[in-house]
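Researcher: Good morning. I'm working through a list of sequences from a screen, and I'd like to move beyond sequence-only analysis. For each chain I'm collecting a predicted structure so we can compare shapes side by side. This is the next one on the list. No need for commentary yet; just the structure.
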Amino acid sequence: MSNFVLTKQHLREVLIFCFNWKKSAAEAHRMLAEVYGDTTPTDKSCREWFRCFKDGDFSVEDKPRSGQPKKFEDKELEALLEEDQSQTQEELAESLRV
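Model: Good morning. Structure tokens for this chain:
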């Protein structure tokens, strides 16, 4: 059984790969949809990422946003999921106190 966990960062890195292969954002979206199904970013999101790449921004991390701060760190959630991937949202929320 594979331990691979699909992340937004991985999908964005795949978009960079497609961009470097001179694929269009639409082609990249179709390729991702074929492989990853419902977890694929929207066509609009793919176009926005390609616009960033064309501007020379190849960072795949989320940019800080205004608004309510995070209630927990992603690493905490990832650690809980590594322990037991079958946990429900309610169990995870209770563990994270959110």
